[in-house]
Input
Amino acid sequence: MFGIQRVTIDYLEHPVGILGSPQFAWSMESDRKNVTQSAYRLQIAKDGDFSRPVYDSKKRETDQSAQIQAEGFVMEPLTGYQVRVKAWDNQGEESPWSSPAEFVSALQAPGQWKGSFIGVETAADEKISKGTYIRGTFRVEKPVRNAYMVSTALGLYHPFLNGEPVGDDEMAPGWTSYGNRILYQTHEVTDLLVWGENVLGAHLGAGWYKGTIGLDKGKNNYGTETAFLAQILIRYQDGTEETIVTDESFKGCDSPVIFSEIYDGEIYDARKEQPGWNKPGFDDTSWLPVHTVQQPKDVLAPQGGCKVRELIPLPAREIIITPQGDTVLDFGQNLTGWVHVKVDGKEGQEMILNHFEVLDARGNVYTENLRTAKETLTYICGGKGEAIYRPSFTFQGFRYIRVAAYPGEVKKENFTAWAVHSDMRDTGHFFCSNPLLNQLQHNISWGLKGNFLDIPTDCPQRDERLGWTGDAQIFCRTATFLKDTYTFFSKWLKDVAADQAPNGAVPHVVPDILTNRSDDDWLVGEGNSMGATAWGDVAVIAPWTLYLSYGDRRIIEEQYDSMKGWVDFMNDHAEDYVWKFARQFGDWVALDAEAGSYFGATPEDMICTAYFAYSTGLFVKMARAVGRTEDAKKYQALYDAVADSYRRHFIKDGHMTARTQTAQIITLYFGLAKEKDRASIMRDLLELLAEHDGHLVTGFVGTPYFCHALSQNGHTKEAYELLLKEDFPSWLYQVKMGATTVWEHWDGLKPDGTMWSADMNSFNHYAYGAIGEWLYRVVAGIEADENAPGYKHTVFQPQTGGGLTEVKGSYDSVYGTVGCSWRAEADRIVLKVQVPVNTTATIVLEKGALPEEGDVKFTCRDGIYQASVGSGTYTAAYRRTGVLL
Ligand code: BGC
Output
C-alpha cells in the first residue's frame, strides 16, 4: 500500500484567496519501510474536470514533495481549482491519485478592483466607535454558474448576502500595517445568490483601524472613518459575467452597536435593531446615502487562510457568589474571545458583563490588572422575546465574567464562552507521565490560542494587546511545534518588514502603533519605540524558525532585505562590534532586577552583542541556503568579528564578566564561548543555579534557553530538576497555583493569594511558555536538521530523566507525522520513533545508553550510539548505564 495522505496549497488545506504561484506539498503513507518518492505527477483542473487539466506536470523524477511549483500555471482571478497528485516510490509502487484538494484564486492584480470603499460615517463620528450598516441591491436574472466575492474594510466588518453571513471570519480584515497592507477576504457565494433582487450588506465597526489602540490610548491611528469595499464576480451559465461593486448607490445607517472598542467592549442596543436590514424587500428609504472613502487599492493583498474564527466553545462551569456579593461565571479556562448569551428582558432592561482573569485572595472580582481596559459588554433589551447576543467588534481576555446586571435569573446554560483565534492546524502533541507537565503543556497551548488572534500579541486582556516583537521571537519555535504557523508568521513578518525603519530598526511592536504616538510613555516615548535587542531579532529568528520547520526558502527570499536591514542596523550602531541603541529591555522582568525595576541584572551591551552574533550567524546560514554567496561570506566575517569582540569584552579568564544566570545561558546556547571556556561557564551557571536552590531568576532573554543551555552541556539532570521545580519561581509553581495559561510574572499570584503589581500583571502571556520547545526537542527528542530542514531528515535524541516513565511526542510536519515516544522501565528505555515516507532520520541515544539487539542497528561513535533509518516505525530498547551526564 502506497498512497498520498494530504495535499496542501501554501501549507493550507482549502485556501480561498491565493495569489501568484502557489506551492504544493503532499505527505504519503506506506506499509513498508525505507520508502522515498522517486517521481510524482501533479494535475490542476477547473470544475473538477481532470480529463482536461489546466496544468499537468507529467511524471517528474524527483524526491521533492514539498515546495512544488507548477511552472507555467497562471491563475485566473476568482476561480476554483482542484489539484491532485500521484507518486511513485523507490520500491516500484505507484500510488493512486490523491483525493482532490481545492483552492480558490484571489484577484491577481490591483487593477482588477472595480469598486469603491464606501462609508456612512460623518466628520462628527470621528471620535465615536459605533457600528454602521451598509446595504446595496442588485438583480440576478439568469442561471448562475458560480460567483465569488472579495471584500474588506477600513475598520472591522461582517459581510452578508441576502441576510446570510458571507464566511465565518471574525475580526476581519485583521490587523496589518494598514498604510502599507490591508488584507481582503475571498469567498465563494454561488449558493447565497437568489433569483431577482439580491442584497449585499455589511456591518462595520472601528476596530484597530479607527478605535483606541496603543500605549497612548490614541484613536484614529489609521483613519477617521470606517468603510466597506466589496466586489462580486458572477459567472452566468450562458457564459457571460457581471461584476457587482460597492459604490455610491449603496445606503447606510447606524447599527444597534452604539459603542465597540477592542479594549473596552461593546454596548448593543437591541431597540435599534432593524429586522431584515440585509435582506431583499427591506424598506431603506430612511437610510442615508453612502459616500466614497479615499483609500489606495494597491495596498490590498489577499488573505488565503489562517483566518480568525470562533473555534472552541466553553460552557460556563460554575456560578460563584463572591464574598462581596457579585454573581460570577467561571468558564474554567483563561481564554480570549467572547461569550454568547441568551437574554430575554423588557424593553430597556440591561445586561452588563465584566470580563476578568482571576479572583483575588478573598475570592472577589479582580480587574485592576486590566488597567484601563473595561472588557465590558452591555446589552439593552429590545423587549421582543429571547435573543442570543454576542459582540461583533471586540474581544476579551477572561476566565470569569461578573454578571453586573441581567434580566431574570442567571443560569449557567445561558452563557457559552468561545475561544477566538487564528485558525491553524494542530501539529504538535505532547503527553507524559507527569500530570503537572501535561497541564503546563495545556497552558502553553492556551497561551498560543489566547494570543494568536491575527497577530502575535503579548497579552489579550489589559489595555495593550500589541504585537510585541520580543514575545513573538521567544515563543516562535514553540508555537511552530504546536500549530501550523507558516501562514500566520509569514503574514506578520511582512508587516515587520513594512514597519521597519529605513535604517533597519525593527519596531518594538508590529503593527507599529508606538512610533510618533507614545511621546509621553516612560518606556517607549521619545524615540524609544524601536531597535531593541531580542525584540528586533524576530526579523531574523522567526524566518529562520520557519525555514527550519518547513524547509521553505521562500520565507528567506521574502524577508531577506528585512533580515539584512536588522543586522546592518546593529552593525551601524556598534563600536568594536558591541552595539547599543536607545531603549533596551534587557532581560525583561528577570527576578535578578533591582527592586521595583523591570530590567534584569544582565548588562544590556552583553545581551545586545550576543544577539548581534546569533542573528548574524543565522543570517549567514540563510544567505547560503538561497545561494547569496557574497553576502554569506561578508556576514560570516561580520559574525566572526562580533563573536570575537563578545569574547574579548565579556569573557575574562574563562568567566563571564556578569555573574547572572542569563549571561551564562546566552553565551552557552548561542555558542559564543571558546571550547576551553565552556566548562567553566557551565560550572558558573550551576553555581548560580545552586545559589537560588536550583531556581531560575531569569527573564525574557534567559528563560527560553535555560534548559537547553544545561542539556546541551551534559546537565540534562539539572535541566529536568529546574523544569520540575514546584515552588516559586518556576513553571510548575503557576500550574500548582491553578493557572490555565502562562503568566507574565513568575509570581503573578503569590502563595498567599496576593498579586504582583497590577500595572503589569497578565495571566495570559505566552513568553515563558517558550519552554514548550524543550519538551518537544529534548524530552520527546524531536529535532529538525538544519541541513535537511522541514524534517526531511529528523534527529531523534530524547533525553530521559525527571522521573518520567512515559513520554509521547509528535509533530505533524509537511511530510507527515514525525513521532518519538519512550517508556522507562527502571533503567531500561523502550523507544519508538515514526519517520514519515520520503524522509530519513538519525536516532541518537543519550549518553551512557547501551542498546539491546533489535531491528535498529546502532553503531557507536565517541561513546554515543546512533542509527540511521528510513521511513517507517521503529522500536528500540536500551539500558541507561551509570549516572547520566
Ligand atoms: C509587554 C511585554 C513586552 C514588554 C516590552 C510589556 O508591556 O507586555 O510582553 O515585551 O512590554 O518591554
In short: The chain has a mean pLDDT of 97. Residues 458-459, 464, 468, 470-471, 585, 588 surround beta-D-glucopyranose (CB under 6 Å). Residues 587 and 701 are 5 Å apart (CA to CA).
